[in-house]
Design brief:
455 residues, mainly alpha, Growth Hormone, Chain: A, 80% helix
Length: 455
């Protein structure tokens, strides 16, 4: 069977990401704000449940990977779970944005339960979605072309959500943010379900060779992950990057509203950032052909650092400059666009390498790490935001003190730059699958990396 991926498959897979990311972007961009300023929860409590939920995910995400890899059906092992997970997560999404309807102790219990359940149901859908990539083609070039489609549509979803989200909330709620968030969640749930059925109809995995049809159990996860030194290197690299990225996303609305005193700058920042992210994803295949791939992660992490520098310059020399804020948004999200496309291709390479190391192929277990990383990064970012807001003395819907404003600036600019630098250093020190996995070519490089990791 040819490794060529058809246009219909690429488009359908991409539209699936559009629905999927419309369902998760409001969680990462607005949920902290919704919980604190709309539902009335304390920031420290919200940050704590964000982090606690990810402890649960550390177990359930790999378990879902095992379940998917053990699935045998006439529809394949990925598509049934995409549909099931989408239906469940769509229901929970609406329930999550109903939190403002509760009060007192019930409010806190409901918020914690709804958020944890959201993470569990999102796992059911997200892991099989991304795990399909190695099963659609064994060609690295085809994979690089394919990942542009879901990443482009995902970036579009984040762009629309970040730029117009609060405006749409206001319109659909007639000025009532609680009602607006609920109505937006209802609309997204419908689009989300439609996108899942489109994937189920048009995106079909290749038939799996008999040798890869073995059963997995949870103990196998420890071997699959533990013996794959390149997966562990990728985990460290991506985790630092995504925590920094989602930390910026979580703090941005507070930063512009309170530190700069102009909430209208937030959609400007998000609009330019969204366009730049799409550009980063779109240009990724061209960058991958023009430059050695080992340099691409440095580009991806370097642009966000430049973004932080631009915000510092803006705060000192031109406070509130829309031009500099736009440049800062463009810089960070161009890097994020490149990184999102690149990390998906890197994970597909890690699947090939893991099969070589262990003799067992498990797309879903390894791609469960991506889902877990994104959610853990979002939770870590949310935890830092929640605890950080409490530490710096943030008071909702009030004028902030100078110390609070300085704290908001550091959390928006200083800490993300440090984390991006850490990501680049981990990548440089440990990751070796720069041009995909080719056993003969990597024979010299990989033992060195494994030895370094072991030490």
């Amino acid at each position: 069977m040819s490794d060529k991926i058809t246009l219909q498959t690429k488009l359908s897979y991409g539209l699936g990401a559009l629905g999927k990311d419309f369902a998760c972007a409001p969680i990462y961009i607005f949920l902290m704000f919704y919980f604190t300023d709309v539902a009335g929860l304390s920031a420290a409590f919200v940050g704590t449940i964000f982090l606690a939920a990810r402890v649960i995910d550390a177990i359930t995400d790999p378990m879902m990977g095992v379940i998917v890899d053990n699935t045998r059906s006439k529809f394949g092992k990925f598509r049934p779970w995409i549909v099931i997970g989408t239906l469940l997560n769509a229901i929970v999404l609406v329930g999550l944005f109903s939190t403002h309807m509760f009060e007192g102790t019930a409010l806190y219990i409901y918020a914690a339960a709804a958020y944890i359940l959201w993470g569990l149901t999102y796992t059911i859908m997200d892991i099989p979605y991304w795990s399909m990539i190695p099963a659609l083609s064994s060609s690295r070039q085809e994979r690089e072309k394919l990942v542009v489609w879901p990443r482009l549509f995902a970036s579009l979803a984040w762009f629309v959500t970040g730029t117009y989200g609060l405006h749409i909330v206001g319109k659909l709620g007639n000025g009532d943010q609680g009602e607006g968030f609920f109505n937006v969640a209802m609309l997204i749930a419908v689009l989300f379900v439609m996108s899942a059925f489109l994937i189920a109809r048009n995106v079909k995995e290749k038939s799996t060779p008999a040798k890869t049809m073995e059963k997995f159990n949870f103990k196998d996860v420890l071997q699959i992950i533990g013996k794959n030194d390149q997966l562990k290197a990728l985990i460290g690299t991506v985790l630092m990057f995504q925590i920094a990225n989602l930390l910026v996303g979580g703090f941005a609305i507070y930063y512009f509203t309170y530190a700069l005193g102009n909430a209208e700058l937030f959609p400007v920042y998000m609009m330019v950032a969204g366009i730049a992210e799409v550009a980063g994803v779109f240009l990724f295949p061209r960058l991958a052909t023009m430059l050695p791939r080992k340099y691409l992660w440095f580009i991806a992490s370097g642009f966000p650092i430049v973004s932080c520098v631009v915000l510092v310059v803006m705060s000192v020399f031109a406070p509130g400059s829309a031009l500099l804020i736009g440049l800062a948004g463009a810089a960070i999200k161009f890097g994020v666009g490149v990184a999102n496309a690149l990390q998906t291709v890197m994970l597909a390479d890690v699947v090939d390498y893991g099969e070589h190391k262990t003799g067992r192929r498990s797309e879903s277990v390894i791609f469960s790490v991506q889902t877990m990383l994104v959610k853990f990064a979002g939770a870590a970012g949310g935890f830092i935001v929640g605890i950080g807001l409490s530490v710096v003395g943030y008071v909702p819907n009030a004028v902030q003190s100078e110390a609070t404003i300085f704290g908001l600036q550091f959390m928006m600019v200083g800490l993300p730059a440090i984390l991006m630098l850490a990501s680049a250093l981990i990548y440089k020190g440990y990751y070796r699958l720069h041009d995909g996995f080719v056993a003969d070519d990597m024979a010299q490089e990989l033992p060195k990396a494994a030895a370094v990791t072991a030490n």
